[in-house]
Write a structure and sequence with these properties.
By secondary structure, the protein is mainly alpha-helical. The protein has a single domain (6-155), classed as Ferritin (Up-down Bundle), CATH 1.20.1260.10. Helices cover 77% and strands 0% of the residues. The chain is built from six helices and no strands. The protein has helices at residues 6-30, 35-61, 72-85, 91-98, 102-123, 132-155. Helix 1 runs antiparallel to helix 2 (35-61). The longest helix is centred in the N-terminal third of the chain and has 27 residues, at 35-61. It is globular. The termini are far apart.
């Protein structure tokens, strides 16, 4: 018996984006005006857009039947992977509180963007083929975020 359905896999993606939004917005609110604040506000807005993309997919996944059977171990892997990306209640705030400077915040964002890219690459096979281009689009945007954060890190 499978541990996850396609809609559960996409629900994890929604949660990942919600956590990304919370981090970027909360950190942007701590910064004075300037390039870093603009960057973190931009990233928060991008995460909000991704939430809408994945939420829209959820509506279409109710009747989706997977055509490929995956071993239970693969579903367990996806579940564990998502659990490590999705913070437990209060953990996000605790981790943000340990970030003492912009460079550490940027490094945190870089790690989260890379983790998200890997997860989204894994979940592509769980959504209808007609929606896989949406996952590709989000992956492309996450890569752009990674590049922008990497450039900001060099500037700091």
């Amino acid at each position: 018996m499978a541990l996850l359905s396609a809609s559960e896999v996409v629900q994890f993606a929604v949660k990942i984006e919600e956590n990304g939004f919370a981090f970027y917005q909360k950190y942007a609110d701590t910064l004075p005006s300037g390039k870093s604040k603009e960057m973190f506000n931009f990233l928060a807005d991008e995460e909000r857009k991704h939430i809408k993309v994945f939420s829209g997919m959820l509506d279409r996944l109710e009747d989706f039947k997977q055509t490929v059977n995956y071993p239970d171990e693969y579903f367990a892997y996806l579940h564990s992977y998502a659990d490590n990306l999705i913070f437990k209640k209060g953990e996000l705030e605790r981790e943000i509180d340990t970030i003492k400077d912009e460079k550490a915040a940027v490094e945190f964002g870089i790690r989260r963007e890379l983790d998200s890219i890997l997860y989204y690459q894994e979940i592509k096979s769980f959504v209808p083929e007609k929606d896989s281009h949406l996952i590709d689009k989000v992956i492309g945007e996450e890569r752009k975020h990674f590049i922008r954060l990497s450039q900001l890190k060099k500037e700091l």
